[in-house]
Write a structure and sequence with these properties.
379 residues; alpha+beta; Glutamine Phosphoribosylpyrophosphate, subunit 1, domain 1; 2 domains; five-stranded antiparallel sheet; 19 strands; nucleus; proteasome endopeptidase complex; proteasome; EC 3.4.25.1
Length: 379
């Protein structure tokens, strides 16, 4: 093997147009030996008002020879065009721009960074790690609580969820909806951070609707699964959304679980959330193939109730969604396993309208002011 060398390429964006320009470590360099990772700090000397984005990255080769050409000239092995359209004018790469390079010693793993594409940034994560090493106490995580389940029965899929929303130790909503609409034949239960689950499911639901408009066909469950797992995997678990996806399409009933990091399971029955262990105990002991609709609803309700009775993060009511071929049935507040048992003996009643405490009539009197005219001005 020959010596390892490195070339540096620069991605430049001008008002939305992206091009590629090549550079060596100097105008007279034939080869650039790769000893340590290097970071170039670039200063644009010509037409700086046209530049909106500039990025450098190292690419390593076993052996490479670069020609004697000015800095900024693409090498012969480049398959990229040497022209760029900038605001209606065409400029050539050779001698079009000049760069000043400043070398920094850095690890190669840190130098070979992907081109930033926007979206989620992990800069604050590195900042938080640095602050933690300096002794700054980080805020604690709040526990999220939910019990969501799903199972496949003989005609389709049944999904279930509780209706309690919490803010740490506080119950902030006793009757929230955790079964989200994805498509007419697909629904999704969400556990974790409520904002994340709603945002992710709404985003994928809109994409599925656009896909139906474009193709004129019914959405498939695997399409929604792919969009959800791809999105969650790209954020590496920072989007707190644990999902149970169920639906019926042309290939039959499907049930999937999607974890916050993007991993998925395909099972005949599934549970997620803080009360998932209690619900899974019910499923593993009583689930069987070929359940009827009524048997499936009863089993899902019993699993959700098990999560409600054994997990403080789950509570209130039981929501059930039954999906079959060409039909959907959403049973909102299907069961209330923990009704209010304490009623005050004083029996407080409140008026349905605002009570009038005082009535006072103030007559309006008309006040007329007469202004006497002064003497006429003499000419």
């Amino acid at each position: 093997m020959g010596k390892r060398h490195c070339i540096c390429y620069c991605v430049v964006q001008y008002y939305g147009l992206t091009g590629l320009s090549w550079a060596t470590s100097g105008p007279k360099a034939q080869t650039v030996p790769l000893l340590v990772g290097q970071v170039f700090q670039v200063r644009l000397l010509h037409s700086p008002h046209l530049l909106t984005f500039l990025y450098f990255r190292f690419v390593s080769f076993d052996s490479l020879s670069l020609p004697h050409k000015p800095c900024g000239t693409p090498p012969p092995i480049s398959s990229f065009q040497s022209d760029l359209l900038l605001c209606g004018s065409t400029f050539r790469h050779p001698n079009a721009y000049q760069f000043n390079f400043k070398l920094k010693e850095k690890k190669m793993s840190q130098a070979a960074i992907d081109v930033p594409k926007g979206g989620f940034s992990f800069d604050l994560c590195r900042r938080n790690d640095m602050l933690a090493k300096k002794g700054v106490q980080q805020p604690s995580y709040r526990k999220t609580g939910t019990t969501i389940v799903g199972l496949i029965f003989q005609d389709g899929v049944i999904l279930g969820a509780d209706t309690r929303a919490t803010e740490g130790p506080i119950v902030c909503d006793k009757n929230c909806e955790k079964i989200h609409y994805m498509a007419p034949n697909i629904y999704c239960c969400g556990a974790g951070t409520a904002a994340d689950t709603e945002a992710v499911t709404d985003m994928v639901s809109s994409q599925l609707q656009l896909h139906r408009y474009h193709t004129g066909r019914e959405s498939r469950v695997v399409t929604a699964l792919t969009l959800l797992k791809k999105h969650l995997f790209s954020y590496q678990g920072h989007v707190s959304a644990a999902l149970v996806l169920g639906g019926v399409d042309v290939t039959g009933p499907h049930l999937h679980t999607i974890y916050p990091h993007g991993s998925t399971d395909t099972l005949p029955f599934a549970t997620m959330g803080s009360g998932s262990l209690a619900a899974m105990a019910i499923f593993e002991s009583k689930y069987k193939e070929g359940l009827t609709r009524d048997e499936g609803i009863k089993l899902v309700t019993e699993a959700i109730c098990s999560g409600i009775f054994n997990d403080l993060g789950s509570g209130s009511n039981v929501d059930v969604c039954v999906i079959t071929k060409g039909h959907k049935e959403y049973l909102r507040n299907h069961l209330s396993p923990t009704p209010r048992t304490y009623v005050s003996a004083k029996d407080y009643t409140f008026s349905k309208k605002t009570e009038v405490l005082l009535t006072k009539i103030i007559p309006l009197t008309e006040k007329v002011e007469v202004i006497e005219a002064g003497d006429a001005m003499e000419e």
